[in-house]
Design goal:
Layout (H helix, E strand, L loop, with lengths): L2 E5 L15 E6 L4 E5 L3 E6 L15 E2 L24 E5 L8 E7 L11 E12 L5 E9 L17 E9 L6 E11 L5 E7 L6 E5 L13 E5 L6 E5 L5 E3 L5 E3 L4 E7 L3 H20 L1
Antiparallel strand pairs: 1-2, 2-11, 3-4, 4-6, 5-18, 6-13, 7-12, 7-14, 8-11, 8-13, 8-18, 9-10, 9-12, 14-15, 16-17
């Protein structure tokens, strides 16, 4: 298992500057990967999760990172066929090759663990593997969700305004990796966002870690969108199978969520800020009295 600290490219920032000197930590997981797939998705499962090791500092605003990688998310309960749900590195089957299919997922309850106070995101965690020894720019977009539970339907549904676009030049990984990517602090307008993963090349050789129940009161609908980037007009296809569970052939089942985490902190309530201010005044008076 190797941990790489790699300079990250933070570009296309909306309403905030790039974080100077930011860097990504890429933890190679050294997994044994097994091919899976159906007519919609293709990718890999893994059979030695104990090789993943700790994920480092855990995401505390939202996460469904696998426990085996140091997270707190779980793959879910039993499917109707009594088959255990799993995490997989998967991608949309690319049809036709001209288009760039993207992942899209909704993240809810981000402010839950902060008592409903606004959340400030300072880092993103996600997992991926690749098919081939290529360095690939990953493009991550965060949108506000207005309203928070926007109906998920086929077509171009409203995601709210774009809050941030991050481009990270991801190193070649063929046995799985977990990325911790610092970003310039971003305050979320609400407790829900829409997140989209893409790569800046037409050949889709990145497989995103997916599946899992979010931890700590946050949530996500059991479905994913497929967006054809180069289709005109851009069109979103939303897939939410029965119970939100995707079948990847044989006994392979996964819950339709991107496995990822958001790190950061919550803005203190006004009352807390007032108390902090009073505490500072009291300390200043004590110094003067001394």
């Amino acid at each position: 298992m190797k941990t790489l600290v790699i300079g990250s490219l933070v570009a296309g920032v909306i309403a905030a500057p790039a974080l100077a000197g930011s860097s990504a930590v890429v933890r190679e997981l050294n997994l044994n990967l097994n091919a899976v797939g159906n007519e919609q998705m293709s990718g890999y499962g893994y059979d030695n999760p104990q090789g993943g090791g700790p994920a480092g500092a855990l995401a505390n605003l939202y996460q469904n990172i696998p426990v085996a990688f140091g997270g707190l998310g779980t793959a879910g309960g039993m499917t109707p066929d009594n088959l255990t749900l799993m995490y997989f590195f998967v991608r949309w089957t690319q049809t036709p090759a001209l288009y760039r299919p993207q992942w899209g997922d909704d993240l809810h309850g981000i402010s839950v663990q902060g008592g409903g106070q606004p959340a400030i995101v300072t880092a993103i965690q996600y997992g991926y593997t690749q098919n081939g020894p290529l360095t690939v720019p990953h493009i991550i977009k965060l949108y506000d969700m207005v309203p928070p539970s926007e109906p998920h339907i086929n077509g171009s549904f409203a995601k709210g305004p774009l809050l941030r676009q991050i481009t990270f030049v991801a190193p070649p990984i063929t046995m799985g990796a977990l990325v911790t990517l610092p970003i310039a602090p971003l305050q979320l307008p609400s407790g829900s966002i829409w997140i989209k993963f893409d790569q800046a090349v037409s050949t889709q050789n990145t497989f995103w870690l997916s599946g899992g129940v979010p931890y700590g009161g946050s949530s996500s609908h059991g479905g994913l969108t497929l967006t054809y980037k180069n289709e005109v007009p851009t069109y979103n296809y939303y897939y939410e199978p029965p119970n939100g569970i995707f079948s990847l052939g044989g006994t392979n089942r996964m819950l339709g969520n991107i496995a990822m985490g958001l790190r950061g902190f919550h803005v203190p309530a006004p009352a807390v800020i007032s108390l902090l201010g009073l505490g500072g005044l009291a300390a200043l008076r004590r110094r003067r009295a001394a």
